[in-house]
C-alpha cells in the first residue's frame, strides 16, 4: 500500500515550541525544531504544519486537539503525550518513542509509524485510514472501537494488543507476532493471518488441534 508522504518545504525556519506557549492561537509552520525539550507542558489546539521535528522530547505534555499536517518526527520521545481529539494527516514517526501516548478519539490519515515503540498507546474510538505500522512495538496497545481502513501492520509486535469492538476485515497481521490478543471471533472475519497465527487463534478459542 502506498500512502501520501509529508509534503515538506526545503525552506524551513528554526523554531521552538516555547515560541507559541503563550499565544492565543498557537501555530507552527514551515519550520524545523531540532534538539529541543518541551516536557510536562500543556498547549491546547496547536496547529503544526509543514515541519521537521528531530531529536526532541515531549514527555508528559498535553497537546490535545492538535492539528498536524505534513510533519516528520524523527528520534523523538512522545511518551505519555496527550494527543487525544487530534487530526493527524501526512505525518511520519521514525525511530521514535510513543509509550503510553494518547491518540483516542482522533483522525489519522496517511500516517506511518516506523521503527517506533507504541507500547501501551491508546487509539480508542479513533479512525485510522491509510496508516502503516512498520517494525513497530505495539505491546498492549489499545485499539478499542476503532475504524480501520487500509491499515497495515508490517513485522510488528502485537502482543497483548486490544482490538475489542474493532473489525479487522481486510487487515493483514500475518507478518506480526503475538502470544495473546484481545479480539472477538466476529471481529476476526476477513482478517489476513499466517497459518501459525490461525493455529494460535484456534488455541485461544479453546480448540484442541490434533496433528
From TrEMBL:
<dbReference type="Pfam" id="PF13599">
    <property type="entry name" value="Pentapeptide_4"/>
</dbReference>
<dbReference type="InterPro" id="IPR001646">
    <property type="entry name" value="5peptide_repeat"/>
</dbReference>
<dbReference type="InterPro" id="IPR052949">
    <property type="entry name" value="PA_immunity-related"/>
</dbReference>
<protein>
    <submittedName>
        <fullName>Pentapeptide repeat-containing protein</fullName>
    </submittedName>
</protein>
<dbReference type="Pfam" id="PF00805">
    <property type="entry name" value="Pentapeptide"/>
</dbReference>
Amino acid at each position: 500500500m502506498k500512502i501520501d508522504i509529508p509534503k515538506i518545504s526545503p525552506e524551513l525556519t528554526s523554531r521552538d515550541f516555547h515560541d507559541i506557549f503563550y499565544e492565543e492561537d498557537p501555530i507552527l509552520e514551515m519550520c524545523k525544531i531540532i534538539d529541543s525539550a518541551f516536557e510536562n507542558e500543556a498547549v491546547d489546539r496547536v496547529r503544526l504544519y509543514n515541519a521537521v521535528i528531530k531529536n526532541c522530547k515531549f514527555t508528559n505534555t498535553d497537546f490535545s486537539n492538535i492539528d498536524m499536517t505534513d510533519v516528520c518526527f524523527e528520534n523523538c520521545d512522545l511518551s505519555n503525550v496527550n494527543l487525544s481529539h487530534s487530526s493527524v494527516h501526512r505525518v511520519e514517526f521514525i525511530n521514535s518513542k510513543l509509550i503510553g501516548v494518547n491518540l483516542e478519539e482522533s483522525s489519522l490519515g496517511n500516517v506511518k509509524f516506523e521503527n517506533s515503540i507504541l507500547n501501551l498507546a491508546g487509539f480508542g474510538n479513533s479512525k485510522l485510514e491509510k496508516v502503516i505500522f512498520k517494525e513497530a512495538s505495539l505491546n498492549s496497545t489499545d485499539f478499542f472501537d476503532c475504524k480501520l481502513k487500509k491499515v497495515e501492520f508490517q513485522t510488528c509486535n502485537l502482543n497483548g494488543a486490544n482490538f475489542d469492538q474493532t473489525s479487522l476485515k481486510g487487515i493483514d497481521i500475518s507478518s506480526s507476532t503475538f502470544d495473546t490478543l484481545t479480539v472477538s471471533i466476529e471481529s476476526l472475519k476477513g482478517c489476513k493471518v499466517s497459518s501459525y497465527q490461525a493455529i494460535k487463534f484456534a488455541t485461544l478459542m479453546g480448540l484442541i488441534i490434533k496433528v
